[in-house]
Amino acid sequence: MLHVRVISPEALTERALDALAGDDGVTHVIVLTGVAREPVGDVIEFDVVRESASAVLDRLRGLGLDRVGAIVIEKVDTTLSASADRAARRVPGLGVDAVVWHEIEQQTGEESALSASYLAFMIIAMVIAALGVLLDQPILIVGSMVVGPEFGPLAALCVGLVKRRAPLVRRSVLALGVGFPIGMVITIGVVWLLTAIGLVDKSMLLADRPLTDFIWRPDALSWVVGLLCGVAGILSLTSAKAGTLVGVLISVTTIPAAANAAVALAYGVRDEAVGSALQLLINMAAIVVAGVLTLLIQQVAWRRQERTG
C-alpha cells in the first residue's frame, strides 16, 4: 500500500476528491482545508493499494495537480485497518505484481543521474574488482558487484525505452557512457601506480586464475545469466523487493569485466582486454533486452487484468 499526500488549489479540490471517490483501491481519505502554504491550497491525504495506484495517480496528474500543487508518494510498510483490507480485496490482482509506473520512473530517474557519488562508487567498485582479478579472489569480485552503481542506469534505460521517455534514456546512456570509461581510466592509473611501488605486477594477470578467469571468457551462458539477471532486477524494482535486487547485483559481471579489461589494458594483454570488453557488452545488452521485455509483459498483463477485473 502507498500513502499519497496531495496539495490542491481550492478550485481543484472537489474534482480531486471525485477522482478518488470512484476507485475501490482508495481508503483513509483525509481533507485539510486551507492548511498548505507553499504551494497554497488544501491538503488531501489517502492510502491506495498498489494495484490501483497508477490509475489514481494518472487521474490526479490529469487535473494538473503535479504542476499547480504537489503529489507526494510514500510506501506504507504496515497497515492495521479493516478498511485497507477491504480495499485490497475489492481490487483485482496482487500488490506485489502491480507496477506503479510513477514510482519506478522517479526511482530509476534518480539513479541514472551522472553524479559525483555515482562516479565515486563506479571507481571504487572497479578498483576493488581489479584487485580481485589480480589476486584471483572471488570475494573481492562479489564486493565490487555490490558496490557498483551501474544497475540503476541500466534499469532506467529499460524504463525509458518502454515508457518512451527520451530524457530518461539520454541520462541513462550518459551515465553508462561516461561512468564506465572514467572508472576504467582511473583503474588503469591505479594499476600502474601499484605496479610502480611493487604491490602488483603483470605476472599476476598472466598466471592461472581458476576462480576469476570466467570474467574474460564469455560464452553462451554469459548471455543466459545476463537475461535472467535483467528479468530478476526489473521484477525486484517493480515489486519493491530490495533484498532480491542485492542478489541480482552479485550475479552480473559488468563491473568485474570492465575492471579486468582495464587491468589487461594497463599491462598490454590484448586478448584478455577484448574478452573482458565482450563480456561487458554481452551482459549489458542482455540486461537491457530482458528488462525491456519484462516491463512490456508486465504492462500488457496488468492492462488485461484491469479490463477483465
From TrEMBL:
InterPro entries: DUF389 (IPR005240). The keyword Membrane applies. It comes from the Bacteria. Keywords: Membrane, Transmembrane, Transmembrane helix. Coiled coil: none annotated. The chain crosses the membrane at residues 116-135, 141-162, 174-200, 220-238, 245-267, 273-297. The keyword Transmembrane helix applies. It holds the Pfam family DUF389. This is DUF389 domain-containing protein. The lineage of its organism: Bacteria, Bacillati, Actinomycetota, Actinomycetes, Micromonosporales.
